[in-house]
Design goal:
Elements: H1 3-11, E1 15-16, H2 36-41, E2 43-47, H3 52-55, H4 61-64, H5 69-73, H6 86-95, E3 100-106, H7 132-142, E4 146-151, H8 159-162, H9 168-187, E5 194-197, E6 210-213, E7 217-220, H10 235-245, E8 250-251, E9 257-260, E10 263-264, E11 272-277, H11 296-308, E12 312-317, H12 327-343, E13 351-356, E14 360-364, E15 369-373, E16 382-384, E17 391-396, E18 404-407, E19 412-415, E20 426-432
Helix pairs in contact: 6-7, 6-12, 9-10
């Protein structure tokens, strides 16, 4: 990846004041105890795969190019995904150190990777004649991973999505499709751990927001102003059904927030994750993906930063048309896995502590404070908030060397910090005295 592209990509990973949610009521929110598995997981693999993968220009290509709907639909008659196996995807996630997966069951183009009774625009009725989601769900469970389903109610095949007021019956049919397919996904594939909506909000309806009035004449609706017509997805109604079918499922927008690309501030009411791409710029496969990846250092730094801020990281790859993940991406993910194999105890099952842009941050458990040094200060000193109990052990996790510290009621000072092994993240473990 060229240096200029790396800088551009990382510039997107900034603190954002906007949390992505899908307008679902807090009455349906899981109790805190039922969120612990998801919050403890910390790292997930996101997979975007569909007909658009055959084109190789990203998942929005049919809209960007205004492709004829029928011509685009013919791709399913060429779609064989001959080298796809759910086991391959699950193994890649497991070897990366991920503890959950989220796979696109259906994107905005309307093509389903699962067997649906609502029409025949699905993988079972493609040339391959297979249910990819059934294979994925089984493989993920066998690998000990949480199973996540991405689902978009948006469907570009329906005029009612673009003009829900003018084409109300079309919009209503699209809504029936959504309720039907969510029921199928949560009834036919065993226990589902995560439901990851994309677009279950009135702000996404009538894309582009083309409007007319005497003052502005034809104009587009402001980005921060949602559609206000009579049609609605009725997300609370939908998620009431979801809770009946899968009582403990973690729902995006209800139980957690997600922000694409951006690091979220800590003050939001919901647990959160950052969703971003291993390869710049998009979610669906492009031939350039293998040459446009984040560096391993950048991946580790991003994961550590997110976890220190008390979030999860959902890192995306788009498999190639044949269903295999790019070998270069697999190797990059394996590098993250090696880091987590060595330092996983400082990431998994932790909660965020502090984050300081000048050096790094901390993660916490009931038994330890983990100091993640992403940049060693020139004076070798790091200051963290006070710890109530006396710290009885302070060591570099890389080689168990002791770290000099001083402890007062105002702070803990770590002294003479070095990066002897030239690591991306110098992890120091502080253990307070037991009761």
């Amino acid at each position: 990846m060229k240096k200029k592209s790396v800088i551009l990509f990382l510039s997107l990973l900034i603190v954002s004041g906007v949390q992505s949610q899908d307008d679902s009521g807090s009455a349906l929110q899981l109790p805190e105890k039922d969120m612990q598995s998801w919050r403890n997981a910390k790292f997930g693999l996101f997979i975007h795969y569909g007909l658009y993968s055959n084109i190789g220009q990203g998942e929005w290509i049919s809209l960007y190019k205004l492709m004829d709907r029928d011509e685009y639909g013919k791709i399913k008659d060429e779609f064989t995904f001959e080298e796809y196996t759910g086991k391959h995807w699950a193994e890649v996630a497991k070897n990366a150190g991920c503890r959950y997966m989220v796979v696109t069951t259906r994107h905005h183009d309307g093509f389903c990777l699962f067997d649906t009774e609502f029409g025949d625009f699905d993988a079972v009725n493609s040339l391959a004649g297979r249910d990819l989601i059934a294979e994925y769900a089984e493989a993920a469970r066998d690998a000990g991973l949480m199973v996540g389903f991405y689902y978009s109610p948006i469907d570009w095949r329906y005029p009612g999505y673009f003009f829900p007021t003018m084409y109300r019956s079309s919009a209503e049919e699209m809504k029936v499709q959504t309720y039907t397919q969510i029921r199928e996904l949560l009834s036919n594939y065993g226990k589902v751990d995560i439901l990851w909506y994309d677009g279950l909000s009135d702000r996404y309806l009538a894309i582009g927001g083309l409007e007319w009035n005497d003052e502005k004449q034809w104009h587009t609706r402001e980005r921060d102003r949602p559609y206000t017509g009579e049609f609605s997805w009725e997300p609370d109604k939908l998620n009431t059904m979801v809770r009946e079918l899968q009582p403990e499922i973690v729902i995006k927008g209800t139980d957690f927030g997600n922000q694409e690309f951006s690091l979220i501030r800590r003050q939001y009411r919901l647990p959160w994750e950052v969703g971003t791409n291993l390869s710049y710029p998009g979610w669906g496969w492009r031939p350039s993906d293998k040459d446009a990846m984040m560096s391993l250092d950048s991946c580790i730094q991003l994961l550590v930063t997110v976890v220190c801020k008390d979030g999860n990281l959902l890192l995306n790859v788009g498999p190639m048309p044949n269903g295999q993940i790019e070998p270069a991406q697999v190797m990059r993910l394996q590098g993250i896995g090696r880091f987590l194999e060595k330092y996983g105890e400082s990431i998994y099952d932790t909660r965020g502590g502090i984050y300081d842009e000048t050096w790094g941050g901390t993660t916490l458990t009931d038994r330890a404070v983990y100091v993640h040094v992403l940049k060693v200060p020139s004076d070798g000193l790091i200051y963290i908030p006070p710890v109530k109990k006396k710290i009885v052990s302070a060591v570099y996790m890389s080689d168990n060397r002791k770290v000099a510290i001083s402890q007062t009621d105002k702070n803990v000072t770590l002294k003479d910090i070095t990066n002897r092994h030239n690591e991306t993240d110098v992890v120091i473990k502080l253990e307070p005295a037991s009761e």
